[in-house]
Specification:
By secondary structure, this protein is mostly helical. Helix content is 75%, strand content 0%. It has one domain: Na+/H+ antiporter like domain (Na+/H+ antiporter like fold, Up-down Bundle).
Length: 371
Amino acid sequence: MIKRFLQLESAGGIILFIMAIIAMIWANSPFSHWHQQFIGKFLFLINDGLMTIFFLVVGLELKRGYLEGQLSRLSTVILPFFAALGGMLIPIMIYCWINMGNISTLRGWSIPVATDIAFALGVLSLFGKRVPVALKLFLLALAIFDDIGAILIISLFYSGGISLPFLLLSACCMLVLLTLNHQAVKSLSLYILSGGLLWLCLLFAGIHPTIAGVLLAFTIPSSTDHKHSPLHKLEKALHFWVAFIIMPLFALANAGFSLQGLSFAALLQPVVLGITLGLFLGKQLGVYIFSLLLIKLKFAKLPERCSWFQLYGIALLCGIGFTMSLFLGTLSFPHEETYLTQMRLGVFMGSFLSGLLGAVVLMICFRRIVR
């Protein structure tokens, strides 16, 4: 199951990269007005609708990881947990330091916190079987904890104008879902119907509706026969659509921006600089230093058959933010085109530098192994 997941995520990362390039070409072509029309018509559907399914799959992965896999044992969780924590705190500190005193741009503090697992695994897949399995699982677990952090940030900081009646209706929908789970109901259609109602109630309650995907995932039942459980069936059914349809559509709608009038000075704008350095510098420092401290203090061990230099390469790959960073960016600067363009440029620069240097470091590592 984990092997299939890694293969699917790696392939999805390649497709995601291609769609991001297409978005950039489209946004800077003579047909750029069609790109703007596409965004105007479908942005809400993609970012608030289809991305709920993305978060549903994330939630299913989290639950399965806890019940069955790499998140079920403390010994395998402690290192990626603290590495992820460092990889969130240091980028936030760098971004806030660069944007200190500017209330408008400080709203983007959360953008560089999360790792794009599809892109990171896509880069890692270039090295094939030379990559130790333990190293892949470390990156996977770390990205999962990153996703948990991003989900908490969205639920706590991107809700406004709360409507109490709809909040109570949301609680009722959640109660129905919990009752279905408690009664061991296995009909996925009942869960999906209740989850759809929860999405509507959260939307009108003023809470970002994508959280409905995570809440729904946590109520989908598992069983001792994991391969035939509703959780496994739903995750398997949705994973292809998320990896090859939803995330590429998200990239097409959110990754493109006009390069017209772009100058070197644009790279020094506080939003661009904060995100670029947060992803490229903050991520690698946070992941590597927190891992180093934990291992040196004997609370954890290096992943099996993994060197310190390989761990540094993985820390660099964690700076590939992309999907979640773009999503957090759209929440941080809604309807502010100038900041949205700067945000996209910062995410692109930080992710590109992290992926490039991470690939170079890992290439050096695995060449040494071959020799």
